[in-house]
Amino acid sequence: MLGLILAQEILSPQALSVLGAGLAIGLGALGPGIGIGLLASGALQAIGRNPEATPQIQLNMILAIAFAEAIAIYALVVALLLKFVA
Amino acid sequence: MLGLILAQEILSPQALSVLGAGLAIGLGALGPGIGIGLLASGALQAIGRNPEATPQIQLNMILAIAFAEAIAIYALVVALLLKFVA
Amino acid sequence: MLGLILAQEILSPQALSVLGAGLAIGLGALGPGIGIGLLASGALQAIGRNPEATPQIQLNMILAIAFAEAIAIYALVVALLLKFVA
Amino acid sequence: MLGLILAQEILSPQALSVLGAGLAIGLGALGPGIGIGLLASGALQAIGRNPEATPQIQLNMILAIAFAEAIAIYALVVALLLKFVA
Amino acid sequence: MLGLILAQEILSPQALSVLGAGLAIGLGALGPGIGIGLLASGALQAIGRNPEATPQIQLNMILAIAFAEAIAIYALVVALLLKFVA
């Protein structure tokens, strides 16, 4: 009977939504993190090759970071929804 | 008895197909997303190196994006099938 | 009682082997797909840099593709074994 | 009845926290490991291209490794918390 | 009752250790495989650029392959332990 109650608690929609929230932010942070690393790597290499172009490179780097960051924020929103919205 | 009913609901084919649909589109969007990023990166670098070749590069970039996008659409189709077709 | 029967169906070796088959071909296609993309990228860049070396590059590209493809076929074989062999 | 007791043991919060700890350090070591590989690759190539700049490159490489290593330590902390803190 | 027995068999520590062994070698072979591919790619490109340096490149390549291979052997050891040690 205790096993049933435990299984009920663990397999309940609320309990599984916690797992889903963890997966959402965990996997959802993977891509944007790698992506920002890649684009910043490119920007830093470009600045190293041609330091006079720093303003344009910086502007475009921040623009691209914003889009990648937004994807991470989508995952954050979904994770918080899964955790706090019934 | 409630535990059994909950387990029945969660482990039923319909419930698991929802999980499968999430995995299908989640993992299926991973590859094409990275792939389009890689090929667009190559295309942008090629245009930066040789701006006069922009038309050919753009044409081939769009051609390659179409094939990568198609893979994402396969995953979308499978996810929608898993969700809505019994 | 219905819950028990459902759990029995879902957690039975046959049912789990279906899951294993999906994982086998799903994850087993990941690596060779990326690998063939990488090696073909290198081959195409090499041909673009030195078009006269196309025959040797093509020969070695096909040789390497064959080995990568073979890994995908291993995954396919395992997936089909899991699905159809009891 | 034995099945219930086993399910109770395996699906209990303590048992699942062991699984979570494995996932935490397993996935949490993935990113920093790859990241340190990438940044050390860049540092070694830079030293190979311009050996006179070794001191600055080494300094910045160690700085960047420290930040990447810190992320792995976060995962280690979470894994140990999940394992030993009730 | 059959469902309980099946669940007991599948969720027993021995059954789950089989799953863990599969995950251990499956995920543990991922990183070293990619890593050896990356380092051999670098070695081959270096030999192509400067064939006279082949002995040193080959020596260092084999050294690095040994360390990457060792990581795969760790995963193999853990997988065999999970499978055969109670």
Provide tags for this entry:
4 helices; 88% helix; CF(0) (chains A, B, C, D, E); transmembrane (chains A, B, C, D, E); homopentamer; mainly alpha; F1FO ATP Synthase; 86 residues; cell membrane (chains A, B, C, D, E); ATP synthesis (chains A, B, C, D, E)
Short description:
Five copies of one chain form a homopentamer. The first copy, chain A, has one domain: F1FO ATP Synthase, CATH 1.20.20.10. The first copy, chain A, is built from four helices and no strands.
Shape of chain A: elongated
The topology string of helices and strands of chain A comes to: HHHH
What's the overall average pLDDT of chain A, rounded? 85
CATH topology annotation of chain A: F1FO ATP Synthase
Beta-strand proportion of chain A? under 5%
Largest sheet of chain A: none
Keywords (chains A, B, C, D, E): ATP synthesis, Cell membrane, CF(0), Hydrogen ion transport, Ion transport, Lipid-binding, Membrane, Transmembrane, Transmembrane helix, Transport
InterPro entries (chains A, B, C, D, E): ATP_synth_csu_bac/chlpt (IPR005953), ATP_synth_F0_csu (IPR000454), ATP_synth_F0_csu_DDCD_BS (IPR020537), ATP_synth_F0_csu_sf (IPR038662), ATPase_proteolipid_c-like_dom (IPR002379), F/V-ATP_Csub_sf (IPR035921)
Subcellular location (chains A, B, C, D, E): Cell membrane; Membrane
Organism (chains A, B, C, D, E): Thermoflexus hugenholtzii JAD2
